Amino acid sequence: MNGGETTVGRVSQVNDKPTGEQSFVVTDKYCPTSASIEQRNQVKEVTVIYRGSSFELSSDAAKDWLLNDIPTGIQVANGGGAVAMPQLQSSAETLKNAMELYPNAQVFVYGHSLGSMNAQYAVSDLSDKDSSRIAGGFFYEGPNIYGILSPKQQATADALTKLNKLFNYVDSKDLVPIGYGSGKMSVGNVIRVNSQKVGLIDQHMWGGYEFNKDGSIKATKKGSLQLAKYRVTQQLSAIDMMRKSFMKSGGGLSRSEEIFLDASEAMAITQGMKQTINGEIAELKQMYTDGIKNAGDLWKTTRSNAESTGSHLSYGECIDALARGNATENSIVREPVREYEEKLAKATKISRNYDELLQKIGDSIKKQLETDEELANQIRSM
């Protein structure tokens, strides 16, 4: 990432199974399956990524579509099926094997399209012990497979969803993610994304997604709140682990460590608050923008109707007649627009205030690391 400046992990395992499943196991440090148990025990974070369907004419595409996509789609449309398709079952084994290989790691799971179904099934098929190690599951543009799960699998999915660990992203303009009707249960919290209408394939491949300035996905107000809660929980958990690591060195926390941890907690909570209100502010801005446009349209319609009704009157006489009924450009357009613009400015200022606060907290953290080399080295070694 960032031209090679940032590393989020290393691909330690690539799977290309007879079922058509293609998946990748990413670890925080390179640690292949051949590594010793001592090395594998050192891995603290694992991400399992499931690839979506192949589109080219190939045996792999045939396996994806004929043996998995179409049969599972029929199961979803009919509200369930007796047995999960082969690729879903092999994907569950992939996740279990990864968790067994790296027994001390927290685990994240990702999947898009067919990969979304694989990921949904894999996390739902875990034992209670293994499911407690799931730190997050993110599924994109895949059908809702909740109905094809067994009661035990549904219970596992429900538990992880209630813990706010699973998120199922759906673009309502995409034709693929079926089965997410009102009141339907799902594997994960359904995050309905804000999107633009694009071509059929691009719509499915995230092409219509809208993003915030920080790169996060724009979602509805409810979705933004759920994602904010997850992000804050993850960050506070990481800070707590950092606190425990600092304490291992013996004694209490140093003054620098206390300042750093307090500032980091403030940053996490403030970011969460900003993300929470992003949806609110976006809706308010849209409402005020629409209000300004509607005011202009209303005045044009009012004026046009007056001219049609009083076709024997001059333009000035029509305007005077409207004014006697208190229908003026000032009352219909200027006053409402002025009010909308004031409210729009306030909403923008609230967002800007959060940005300024986050900048100050970030500067405080940066300053602390610059003035305390020992602390900076501790952070880098984690």
From TrEMBL:
Organism of derivation: Carnobacterium divergens
Protein name listed in UniProt: Fungal lipase-type domain-containing protein
Domain annotation Fungal lipase-type: ranges: 73-177
GO BP term, pick one: lipid metabolic process
Source lineage: Bacteria, Bacillati, Bacillota, Bacilli, Lactobacillales
